[in-house]
Amino acid sequence: MGNSASSLPYTVGDATHPPNRPGSYGFAIHDGSRKSDGLSVTVLKASKADLVRTPLGRQAGGRSAADPTQNQLLCAIHHFRRCKTLVHPNLLRVYATLDTDHPNGDTPDPTQRPPDQPLGADVPTTGELIVVTERAVPLEDYLDSLPAGAESAARVAWGLHNLVSALGFLHNTAKLAHGAVCPHSVYVTPAGDFRLFNYSLLTPVGVPGGAAGCGGPTAHFRYFERGVTPTEYRSPERMEGRWDEISTSAVHGIDSYGLGVLIGQVYGHPGAGTGGKIPLKLQKAVSRLVSNKLRMRPRVVPLLKCPVFDTPYVHAQEFLDNMAVAPEEEKIRFIQSLPDLLGRGVLGRDVAVHKVLPVLVGAVTTIAAQEGSMAQDVNRRTVLATVPPLFCIVETHLASDADDCRVTLTPIVQLLFQINDRGVRGSLLSRVTFFSQHLDKAVLNSAVFEPMCSGFSDSSKALRELTLKASISLVSYLNLANLDKLVRYLIRLQNDPEPSIRTNTAIFVGKVAPNLSEQSRQRLILPAFERAMKDDFKPCRLAALQAVQSCKDYYGPTDVSTKVMPAVVSHLLDPSTDVREAAFKVVESFMVILRLES
Q1: What's the whole-number mean pLDDT along residues 1-24?
Q2: From residue 107, how far is each of 9, 52, 129, 264, 369 by CA, in Å?
Q3: CB-based contacts of 405: which residues, under 8 Å, 6+ apart?
Q4: Of 68-72, 305-309, 479-483, the least confident
C-alpha cells in the first residue's frame, strides 16, 4: 500500500474476495480492523494499474470491449468520490477512504473530463483506491449462507425493506438515480441489514434547471452504463438509448426497474425461503416496477406499505434502527419485549449479537456516563429492563465460545457494576454464577468483587443476602487479599439482625474454608461456628453443627478435644430435636478421631 496508506487508522488483513470476481468492478475485499479498538471492518482495495487494463464489462453493441476508455478506472474513481459524501443508514457506511495518488483527498472528478479522452497525467494510474466500510459481505454470499425456511424469508423481506429506503433517500433527498441496482451493488452486514453501494453510475435525472434536477443522465452515465449494469437490470429505454425520454421523466424510473428485477432474483434464490417465488403479496407491485413503460413505473417508497413487510421481525428491526429517537416509554416497552422475541426465535443470533446487543450496551453506557442519571426513574427503568435481554443474548449465543464470551462480557459487567442501584446490583448478583466462569480472575477481583462488597453492609436485607449467596461463586477466583476481606465481612454478618443471613453465613463459612489460608482458617472457622451455635435461631445452630462436621479435616486433635467438643456437647440437650441429632452426629464423628489419636 505504500507509506501514505499506512497512515490509515486501520489494518488491512487477508483478501476474502479477489478483484476479478464477477461484479467486483476491480475492488478486492479484505478483512480489516480499526487500530484504536479492534473494531472489525471491511476494506475494499483496487489497483489503478489493474483497473485501467481491465475492460469494464461485456459490451452490448456500439463499443468494443477493447475500447481503452471502456475500462474500470473512471467508474471506480466516480464511485470512490461519491461514497465519501453519501450518508444514510441503508447505504453502506464508509469509515475512511484513501487515494494513494492523492492522499490529501483531492482526487479529480472523472465526470469533468470527456470520457473518450485518452487517460493523461491528470489521472494517475499507479496507486490504489482504498475504501474502509462497516463489516459486510456481498449479497450473493449472504443468500448462499441462508437456510431455506420462514426465518430466511423474514430476513430477505427486511433486506429489501432496507434497499427501498436507501433508494428513497437517493431519489427524494439527494435527487439522484443510482443507475446500477443489481446484486453486485448490495452488501449485507453481520446483523442481516442490506446496504446499497457501488456509485459507479450515480447521476441526476431531469431537464437542466428544472424541478427534477440539474440535468441528466450525465455523459458519464450514458457512456459507461451498459458496461456497469448487467443487461437484465437495464430498462428498455436504456437498452435502446432513449435518453431524451429518461431525462424528462422522474428520477426513480430507471432504478424502479432494476429494483423489480432484483426482487425477483433475490426471491428466486434457494436461501430466500419462499420456494423460488416472489411472495404473492408482492407480485403485483413487482410487475408494476418492471413495466416496459417508463412513466408507468411507481416510486419505490410506497412499496414499504406492502404487507410482506408487516412482520414481527421487520417491526423489531425498524424499532432497533430508530431506537435512539424513540420516546422513552416506548423504548422501555420494546426492551422488555426482547426476551420474548429472542426466546421465540423471532430475532436470531445475527440480529441479537450484532444489533440488539450493541444497542442495549449503548443505552446503558449513555445513562451510566451521566452523573446522577439513575436518580431519574425513566433511566433506572431503562437499565433494569436492559439487563435480562442483555445476559440472555450472551448466555444463549456467546457462552459456547470462551474467548468471544469473555471479550463481550467483560466491558458489560464492568459497566453495570459501576451503576449504584439496588435493582441493577441485584440483577447482576443473581447472574454471578454464570459470568464468573467467563471472566478473567483479575476482572472478577477488581470489577466485580470490589463493588460487590458494598452489598454486605447495605440497609436492604435482600441485597445483603443476595450478596452473600453470590460471593460463594467467586470464592475460588478470589486472590488472598480479597479472601481476607471476605472473611472480615463474614465475621461482621454473623451479627446481622436478619436470622436467615446469619444462618447462610454459617453455611458459607463451611464452603469457603477449603480456599482460605491456614492462618485465615484458624482465625475464622471455629470462632464463627461457636458464635453460630449460640444463636437463638434454630436453623443457624443447625447449620453451624453441620458446617463443623464438614470442616473436621481442618481441626487438630487438641483443638477437637479442647475447643470443638466443649462447644458441641452443650447442644446434646438443645431444645430442638434436629439440633440435638446433629450434635450427636458431630460428637460421634469426632470421638472416632480422638480414640485414634489416644
Answers
A1: 82
A2: 20, 16, 10, 38, 40
A3: 394, 398, 399, 438
A4: 68-72
